[in-house]
């Protein structure tokens, strides 16, 4: 009996002990779980902030569609003839043939495809020549260069007075304008119409028959 009692008795405190152990273990587990949950919440929040930052940077740099820049990069004169018969200012004239290198700078992360367009050359506001900029594609983050043959002459001018005085100071100033029409395409999904304009001033040196100055805006 005593043996039995002894046999029966001990488990009780052990059980009790186990229960309180279990309880504290349970509490510890709960606490651990709570801590884990907080940790996960912090991780998720940090990840969300990180992702938002990435998306923001992406939206502000990669996805922002900027206007490509079109300008004249270089002029190679083939022939240049000028007449300035001094006293008879009305007889002042010019005739030029040159190759204009048109550059289309595309800083976007997608290509810029543009249609052909007209490049006009003006003297004193009057069109003295036109040329066609062929349709082409400027690759992402690169500059497309196109050589365009241009012929200009003074035949369309009715008032050659400013020309006469310009030529007598050995200068010929032309203005060139163009407007491209095309689309910037980002990742085959986003398409934006972009129509960059060109406005360049070309100053020729009449005595050396060279291009003295090229200024594009
Ligand atoms: C300049 O004058 C010469 C002689 O008069 C003529 O042969 C030539 O065609 C003229 N050039 C231009 C550009 O008008
Ligand atoms: C044309 O070029 C020559 C040689 O570079 C220079 O001496 C002259 O001043 C220039 N003419 C003008 C009008 O700038
Ligand atoms: C082009 O630039 C010139 C000055 O360099 C300016 O006088 C002219 O108005 C401009 N033209 C256009 C169409 O913007």
From TrEMBL:
TM region positions: 40-63
Domain Late embryogenesis abundant protein LEA-2 subgroup positions: 102-200
Keywords, sorted A to Z: Membrane, Transmembrane, Transmembrane helix
InterPro entries: Lea14-like_2 (IPR055301), LEA_2 (IPR004864)
Region (Disordered): 1-25
Pfam families xrefs: LEA_2 (PF03168)
Name of the protein: Late embryogenesis abundant protein At1g64065-like
Organism from which the protein derives: Durio zibethinus
This protein's encoding gene: LOC111291439
């Amino acid at each position: 009996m005593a043996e039995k009692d002894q046999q029966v008795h001990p488990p009780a405190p052990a059980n009790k002990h186990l229960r309180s152990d279990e309880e504290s273990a349970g509490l510890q587990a709960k606490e651990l779980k709570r801590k884990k949950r907080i940790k996960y919440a912090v991780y998720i929040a940090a990840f969300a902030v990180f992702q938002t930052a990435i998306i923001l940077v992406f939206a502000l740099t990669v996805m922002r569609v900027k206007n490509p820049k079109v300008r004249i990069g270089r002029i190679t004169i083939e022939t240049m003839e000028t007449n300035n018969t001094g006293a008879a200012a009305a007889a002042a004239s010019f005739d030029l043939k040159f190759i204009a290198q048109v550059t289309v700078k595309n800083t976007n992360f997608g290509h810029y495809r543009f249609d052909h367009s007209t490049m006009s050359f003006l003297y004193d506001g009057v069109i003295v020549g036109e040329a066609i900029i062929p349709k082409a594609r400027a690759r992402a983050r690169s500059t497309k260069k196109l050589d365009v043959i241009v012929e200009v002459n003074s035949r369309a001018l009715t008032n050659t007075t400013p020309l006469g005085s310009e030529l007598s100071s050995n200068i010929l100033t032309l203005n060139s304008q163009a407007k491209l029409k095309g689309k910037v395409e980002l990742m085959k999904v986003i398409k934006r119409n972009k129509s960059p304009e060109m406005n360049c001033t070309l100053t020729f040196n009449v005595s050396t028959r060279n291009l003295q100055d090229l200024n594009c805006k």
